[in-house]
UniProtKB/TrEMBL annotation:
InterPro entries the UniProt entry points to: Beta-barrel_TonB_sf (IPR036942)
Species in which this protein is naturally found: Croceibacterium xixiisoli
Record protein name field: TonB-dependent receptor-like beta-barrel domain-containing protein
Record key words, sorted: Cell outer membrane, Membrane
Biological classification of the source: Bacteria, Pseudomonadati, Pseudomonadota, Alphaproteobacteria, Sphingomonadales
Keyword Transferase: no
Principal location class: membrane
Gene3D superfamilies for this protein: TonB-dependent receptor, beta-barrel domain
């Protein structure tokens, strides 16, 4: 996508870094009144939507379904979905940033390299039971940063960080329904539904995201919690 509209990647700090490092006019114009010079105090940085240079992405989506007949009107359903993001590159202010594998900073155009959802569902005319597994691959806090050991790491550079890593996570959720009443097998009457999110009460990876202690787009921020309800159909 050419000339896509978005806010400059990296936010306020990257606008300042680009202006400081390269003196790029389009970045410096967003600081103060656009005439910032050495020694000036920064009083305003405008992180506004602009026509940026380019956005590229490529990857693969995978989906598979299978259903077993267990007899006696019982079935077992298996479903799996996975996404591999090979590239998610933006070009802005002359910077080329590939955020495939970035899972730390929320609000950026980014995605884990691998993410997956798997479902195992037992189906009976009277009830269903589903176990869902959700996986988020390990990644980095911000693709703009480098840490010791990375290619291109320069000690003391503006884009260095001690630890740029974000661990992977796997979550389990449990859900189901119970049909109540004499016509339950025909889908009429009352249906009790329930769900337990984050069944194992797995903690999110704690990383210094700018607004939250973790990235809420991918990681659970509540812990184990329950939902129960009742619906009717006649």
């Amino acid at each position: 996508m050419k000339d896509y509209i978005g806010t400059p990647p990296g936010g306020f700090q990257n606008i300042i870094n680009v202006c400081h490092q390269s003196g790029l006019a389009s970045a410096c114009a967003l600081i103060n009144d656009g005439s910032i010079a050495a020694g000036d105090d920064i009083t305003e940085v405008r992180n506004i939507s602009l026509n940026l240079e380019e956005l590229r992405t490529s990857g693969v989506d995978i989906e598979a379904d299978y259903r077993f007949d267990l007899g006696g009107r019982n079935q077992l359903m298996l479903r799996g979905l996975a996404t591999y993001t090979d590239q998610l590159t933006s070009i802005a202010f002359g910077q080329t940033i590939d955020r495939a594998g970035q899972t730390g900073v929320a609000g950026a155009i980014a995605a884990p390299k691998w993410s997956a959802n798997g479902f195992v569902t037992f189906v009976n005319p009277r009830f269903t039971l589903t176990l869902q597994g959700r996986y988020i691959d390990k990644g980095v806090l911000d693709a703009l940063y480098t840490q010791p050991g990375d290619d291109g790491y320069v000690a003391g550079a503006l884009n260095t960080i001690n630890d740029n890593s974000v661990p992977s996570r796997f979550y389990l959720n449990l859900s189901g329904t119970v049909n109540l009443g004499p016509d339950a097998e025909e889908g009429r009457g009352f249906q009790l539904f329930y769900r337990v999110n984050n069944l194992l009460n797995t903690d999110p990876p704690i990383v210094p995201e700018t607004q939250f202690p973790t990235n809420p787009v991918y990681f659970d921020t509540i812990g184990r919690y329950y939902t129960v309800g009742l619906r009717a159909r006649f």
